[in-house]
Amino acid sequence: MRPIESLKCHDFPCSDIEKDRHRIPGIDIKTENINTIMISEAPPENEDDYFYSQGNPFYMRTTVQAFNDAGFAAKNMTDVLRLGAYVTTAIKCSKTSYSISQETIGNCSSYILEREITLFPRAKTILLMGETAMKAMNLISKKNTGKIMIPAGPTYKVRKAKYFYNEVRVFPSYLQTGKSYLIEKSKRTMIAEDIREALGHQG
């Protein structure tokens, strides 16, 4: 299965994104092997830095480092997939400013991300990497249950509780992409803890 063949944005209604930098994973995936879905923020401005781009993309390097920090041996995204983890973004187009509007998050979560999650029926855990992913998951939860899932508050506090989307355990965490990941050691430690627990979760 290639996610890009099942997921589409038909009219690109958002105003704070780069529509020509639209990225949905185009790799072949055996959905039955995926136990964890890791949702990051948005594609990078430079497509060469996207998780699944050829060469040595920056988003791949920081993500692989996060898995290594958690104790899982990985050198590339193929290794991450072999660990049973599928990595994607909450927003499918590059952003034009630091923050992303609630409207854009709502559009992408309802048009694409919600459908994307259903592509992996055997997933037991979802990692929400950063505030945008948490907001997107809250919108999906509210749409389907009438309630938000992740309460407001600092990530280091909300990550201590247990959350579920249907029967899937959801882990709020920090963003594992971007240059700040390389310098914020305390966040790297918490990201590693969340990845370790998510991949070890058995339901």
Report what the structure shows.
The structure is a single chain. The protein is about 35% helix and about 15% strand. The chain is an alpha/beta fold and about 200 residues long. It has a single domain, classed as Uracil-DNA Glycosylase, subunit E (3-Layer(aba) Sandwich), CATH 3.40.470. A 5-stranded mixed beta sheet has the order 3-2-5-7-6, with helices on both faces. The chain has a two-stranded antiparallel ribbon with strand order 1-4. Strand 6 and strand 7 form a beta hairpin. The two termini are about 25 Å apart. The relative contact order is 0.19. The mean pLDDT is about 95.
Query: What's the CATH topology label?
Result: Uracil-DNA Glycosylase, subunit E
Instruction: Report the order of strands and helices.
Output: EEHHEEHEHHEEH
At the first level of CATH, the class is: Alpha Beta
Question: What would you call the structural class?
Answer: alpha/beta
Biggest sheet, in brief? 5 strands, mixed
Computed CA radius of gyration, to the nearest angstrom = 15 Å
- Rough shape? globular
* Unreliable stretches covering 5 or more consecutive residues: none
Q: What count of helical segments does DSSP give? A: 6
Number of domains: 1
**CATH architecture assignment:** 3-Layer(aba) Sandwich
